[in-house]
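I hope you will forgive my troubling you with a question about protein structure. The matter concerns a single protein, recorded as an amino acid sequence and a row of backbone structure tokens. Please examine both parts with care and let me know of anything in them that strikes you as inconsistent. Thank you for your consideration; the sequence and its tokens are set out here:
***
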Amino acid sequence: MAEQIEQIDFTWMGTDKSGKRINGEISAKSNTVAATELRRMGIRVVRIKKKPKPLFTSKAKITTKDIAVFSRQLATMLEAGVPLVQSFDIIGKGHENMSMQELLLGIKADIEGGDTLAEALGKRPLYFDELFCNLVAAGEQAGVLETLLDKIATYKEKTESLKAKIKKALTYPISVLVVAAVVTSILLIFVVPVFEELFQSFGADLPAFTQFVIDLSRWMQEYWWMVLGSVGGAVYTLLYFKKRSRAFNQFLDRVLLKIPAIGMILHKSAIARFSRTLATMSAAGVPLVEALASVAGATRNIVYADAVLKMRDDVSTGQQLQYSMQQAKLFPHMVIQMVAIGEESGSIDSMLSKVADFFEEEVDSAVDNLSSLMEPLIMSVLGVIIGGLIIAMYLPIFKLGAVV
């Protein structure tokens, strides 16, 4: 296969057939080719030069949101009748993120070289997973690529929205508790010693609570490095085993599912992802057994992933999906009944879409309720910790005032 020659952007100035001065931009392999193309269009070229690169370019990380927006843009252009290669050219060159621009123009070059869109996307698994490529391949084979891309865009948007809600539920309390730990450490290391010097001048016994805080402060001053190292080591160990140990991930996912409030949100989000993914693949005409293999990874929870893979094995032997879901003992009765109705009526994709909509709304409501519940709870914890330290420091002063 001949090596693809990079297209260069040029700016030009010239006159049209009526002598009117005009200017614009053109992409070509060289300025000679660009000038030839302009003359063929009836333009007399006065000046042509390579387009300067912008001084400040954004080469940020490519996010899932970028991929979702790209899917929506490509679906819209194909639906409008714009050819595939030209669509990639328009979307790629118009993207503000240089990393995304390079990715799209690279896909465009592969398509021009003879690859199908699914094959070109499959070469970039970091951005386009197996589910994405399978749906695109199904759309190309059935001649409904724009419809499938629209479904992919909707799927990506819904899953990203769900992911953001889960992050909101977990990040807020963790961040507040981290700040509380930092503030408490600062008070123990820097503020309490000042009060300790003051108390030594009293020459009297300190209240037990005050003495406990002072002893804790002395320990923190001497062994702060041990506390910091232990916390850092624990975080590193957690991340290390999370990346490398399936058994640890399974244990962690099981524990998280059993945490009050948080576990309920994770259960509902896994069911929403399962329903949304399977609905999208069923609507694309992907066989159920093949679809379940992709759905397992989309649940983002090993407990649910293992259950879905077991369901796939059951379905491959001829068992109905509703019965295998009952045996998994993870899905609510309402979900199983909706799947049963979908199987009987041949509309499993629409039924699963309704289930996904319902559980996405449930997650949204649960996150809002959890945030409302956590705010006073966290403020109470902070009040007890910080207030306790302040009271411990002022108890001897109150005691001294009472004696006087």
